[in-house]
Amino acid sequence: MVQETAVNTQFVGIAPFIYEAAPSRVVFGVGGLEKAPEEIDRLGAKRVLILTTPGRKKLGEELAARLGAKAAEVFSAAVMHVPAETAEAGRAEASGLQADCYIAIGGGSATGLAKAIAVVTGNPILAIPTTYSGSEMTPTWGLTERGIKKTMRDARARPKTAIYDPALTTSMPAALSATSGMNAIAHCVEALYSHEASPIVSLIAEEGIRALAKSLPVVVKEPSNMEARSLAFYGAWLGGTSLGAVSMALHHKLCHVLGGAFNLPHAETHTVLLPHATAYNAAAAPEAMKRIARALGLKGGADSAAQGLRDLESAMGTPLSLESIGMKREGLDHAAELAVKTPFYNPRKLTTEGLRTLLEDAFEGRPPRSWPV
Ligand code: NAD
After folding, report:
1. Burial letters for 342-367: b for 16+ Cβ neighbours within 10 Å, e otherwise?
2. Which atom of ligand 1 is nearest to the CA of 80?
3. Parallel, antiparallel, or unpaired: how do β-strands 148-153 and 140-145 relate?
C-alpha cells in the first residue's frame, strides 16, 4: 500500500537568478597582518607600493618594515572619493617605482587609490582594511572629477587577497566605528532588494546585518573588545561581499551624489541616509524588509525595518541629519536632480519630487516616513 505523505504547498519558489562567485582570497583573524609577507609571495610580487591615508601612515611604515626589501615605498596621500589628481599622482608613483603589486592598508580611501592604479596597470592588490567600508571585496572603483563622482566596475580593481585583522580596527574611534559599520549594513540592505539579488547573496547580506547590529553597539561602548571587533569585521566582510556581488540602488546613488558633488564624509552620509532610503523602498521590497527586520531582531516585522535602522543609529549616537555633517540646504534641489538624471535600478519608482522630500527629511534629521506604494 502506498503511504500518503502531506505535501506542503505553502512555500515561496525560487525566482530565476544569476550568481557569479568572486575569485578573492580572504585571510581572517587577529594577527593576520603578520601573514602579509607570505601573501605577497603568493601573488608573486617583488616591488610593492603601499598605499594609505595620512592618518594611517605609521601603520603603512610598520608594514613596510615587515616586508623589508620588497616594500618600494609608502604613499600616504589617499583621500576620500579618489580625486582625479590623487589617482594621477598614485599612478605616476607606481610607474616610477616599477611596482608590481599594491597593498592598500587603511579604509576605503586607501583601497580606492590602489584600485585607480590597478585598473591601469593590471597589477594585483592586497587589501588590508582597517574600517568596515567593504571596498576590498568589490570590483567597483571610483574617480571624482569636477564635483562628479563616477563609479565603474572592472575585474582588475578587485583585490586578489584581503587580510582582515580585527586588531587593526580597535584604533577606530567609536564614532567612525558606528558610521563605518552602518556603511557596511547599507551594502547588505541594498543587496537584499537589488535587481541582481540571489538566494546566496541574500543569505550573506542578512547575516551581515545580524553580525553588525549585534556587535556595533558593543564596539561603540568598548572599542577594544576584540570579540565584538571580530564579529563586526566579519559583518563588514559580508557587507563588502554583498556589495561586490550585486548592483546597488537608490541609497548608494544618493551617497555618491552627495559625496562627489558636496564632498560630504562617506560613512556619515551612508548613516544619515540609510533609514530614509530603506523607508522609501519599503513598500516595493517587502521580502527584503522582512529579512532586515529579522536580522535586527525586531518584533514588528517588515514595517519596522527602516525605523529599526534609525533606532540602532540613535542608540550608538551617530549623526542623524545631513545638516550636522556639512550639507547646505541650498544643495538639496541639485542633489535630487543629479540623482534622477542618470537612470539606475531601484525597486520603487524615482521622482525628483520624491527624492527632494527624502533629502529634506534627512537634512532635518526627521525619523524615516512611511511612503505610499
Ligand atoms: P577612509 O578610508 O577615508 O577613512 C576615514 C578616516 O579614518 C581616515 O582619516 C583614515 O586615516 C582613518 N582610519 C582608517 N582606519 C582607521 C583605524 N583603524 N583607526 C583610526 N583611524 C582610521 O574612510 P572609509 O569610510 O573607510 O572609506 C571611504 C571611501 O571608500 C570613499 O571614497 C568611498 O567612496 C570608498 N568606498 C568604496 C567602495 C567600493 O566598493 N568601491 C566601498 C566602500 C567605500
Report:
1. eeeebbbebeeebbbbbbebbbeeee
2. 32
3. antiparallel
Distance between CA atoms of residues 16 and 76, nearest Å: 45
Residue-wise pLDDT for 281-307, tens only, equals 999 999 999 999 999 999 888 789 999
CA 28 from centroid of its chain's CA atoms: 18
Nearest CA to ligand 1 atom 36: 108
Residue 34: CB atoms within 10 Å: 10
Phi, psi of 266 (to 5 degrees): -60, -60
Q: Single out the residue of 10, 8, 22 nearest to residue 200, CA to CA.
A: 22
Angle at CA 192, nearest 5°, toward 226 and 220? Answer: 25
pLDDT tens profile 47-100: 999 999 999 999 999 999 999 999 999 999 999 989 999 999 999 999 999 999
CB atoms within 10 A of CB 35: 16
Task: Write out residues with Cβ below 6 Å of ligand 1.
Answer: 53, 55-56, 80-81, 106-110, 112, 130-131, 133-135, 138, 140-142, 168-169, 171-172, 176, 180, 183, 243, 266-267
Please state the pTM of the whole predicted model.
Answer: 0.95
Q: Compute, in angstroms, the gap from residue 107 CA to the centroid of ligand 1.
A: 3
Estimate to the nearest angstrom the gap between the alpha carbon of 121 and the chain centroid. 24
